[in-house]
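user: Kindly work through both lines:
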Amino acid sequence: MCRLFGLSAAPHRVRATFWLLEAPDSLARQSRREPDGTGLGVFTADGTPEIDKQPLAAYQDQEFAREAKDRVSTTFLAHIRYASTGGLDPRNTHPFGQRGRLFAHNGVIQDLPALEAELGDHRDLVAGDTDSERFFALITKHADDNGGDVGAAIATAARWVADNLPVYAINLVLTTATELWALRYPETHQLFVLQRPAGGPHGRHLEHASAAGRIRARSGDLVRQPAVVVASEPMDESPGWQELRSGELLHVDGHLTCTRRIVLERPPRHPLSLDQLGAHAAASQSGT
C-alpha cells in the first residue's frame, strides 16, 4: 500500500534528510509489487511549496529514489505511491500542490465522473488522472468556499465522498508552510501520530525508518526542537505513537498544538472490498 509520512517542526525551520526507497532488493522482491513513484514536498523560507517527485518506470528512476534528499522546511510531506489509478507520470505522482498547499493520499475512490461533476470549475486544478488529485481539488473547492478553513473543507469533502462514491480508503496528509492535517477513514488502513519532544524519549536526533523499508527520515536538528510526525506505521521504538481512529481528523497548528476530532462517524455508504477493486488497484492497497 502507499506510504504516508508527514512532519511538522513549526514554527522552526529544520534540516531533514529523506531516503524514499530504502528497501534492499531482497525485501523488494518479497513485496506484493514494486512502488510506482516517490515524492517529497517542503516549503521555502517565504512559504513557497517545492515538490520533488518521480515516477519509478526504470532502473535509473529507482536509483533516483534511493538518493538522499536533504531539505530545510517547517513541514515535510513524503509519499511512496503504489498506483491504483493513473499511469506512471509525474502528473500522477504525489504529493500534489494547490493554492500553496501540499497533499498526499493512500486509498481508492471510484466513480471519478461523479467526483469531477462535483468539482465544477475546480476541475481545472486537476492535471493528472488520479482519484487523489481530484479529491484534493474537492477539498480546495470547499476551502475556497468557506474562507480558507482547511479542516472544515477536509471534513466536508470527505463526508460527501463517503455518502456518494464507492470508497476503499481516503487516508490523507495535507500540509501548509506552518500547519498539518491528517485524516484516517475508514478503518481500512492505519495512520499514526507521534508528538515528539526535543530529542525524543532518549535525547537523540530523529531517525525514523519504515518497517517495510520504504521511507527513512533523519534530522539532527530535532535533538533540540520538538516535532509532530504522522506516518502509515510507527517508525521507531517510541512508546508515544498513537493510532488515529476511523474518521478522526488531526490538526497540527503553527506551534505544534495537536487537535483531534471525529468528523466521520459512520462507515462509507458504498464501501469497497479488495475483491471489488480489480487486480491492479487491489495490489496497490495490500501487502508491504
